[in-house]
Amino acid sequence: MIVFSLKCHKGHVFESWFRDGATYERQRKRGHVACAICGSVKVDKAPMAPRIASRKNAPAPERAPDNGTTQPVPVSNDPAAAKASAMMKALGELRQQVEKNCDYVGDKFSEEARKIHYGETDKRNIYGETSEAEAHDLAEEGVEFARIPWTPRRNS
């Protein structure tokens, strides 16, 4: 196992464990490596100091905990990294609840939200995608909705 320090295009730095360098490259090219803070898949290796044991019996480096997903797990004593990890876990749990209790309407979210708002269809919980402009228009019209930063789904 090898740990890489990674950095997304928004400047967030986090660490993640991989079987080897080739595994990292393969997963990155397929879009399976995402920022542990914002979910961006535009991720590259960040400069990092090597972890070299000073003596033969030095303790092994800290292992990433198994969080039950294939999400990158920040491995750090930094309180901000611990908060980011907790937030990622909470977002994953929120996603599960939304998917379990709401109807997915895909890219027709704005259209369906308006129909519900104006009483053209029965009130129900929905989720889907919308553009920045459509979200702005919905807010201007007084349509109630919330934006949730989904993290990429991992199937590997």
Strand content: 5-15%
Write down the overall mean pLDDT: 79
- Number of spatially distinct domains: 2
Assembly type of the shown chains? Answer: single chain
Note the total helix count.
4
**Which of globular, elongated, flat, extended, rod-shaped describes the shape?**
elongated
Based on CA atoms alone, the radius of gyration comes out at: 20 Å
Number-wise, the strands total 5
Largest sheet strand order: 2-1-3
- Helical content, roughly? 25-40%
What are the defining features of this structure?
single chain, two-stranded parallel ribbon, alpha+beta, three-stranded antiparallel sheet, 2 domains, 33% helix, 156 residues
Structure description:
With 156 residues, the chain is of the alpha+beta class. It folds into 2 domains: 2-75, no CATH class; 98-141, no CATH class. It has 4 helices and 5 strands, in the order ββαβαβαβα. Strands 2-1-3 form a 3-stranded antiparallel sheet. β1 (2-8) and β2 form a beta hairpin. The protein is elongated and about 60 Å long. Mean pLDDT is 79; it is low at 61-71.
Task: Compose a concise summary of this entry.
By secondary structure, this protein is of the alpha+beta class. It is built from four helices and five strands.
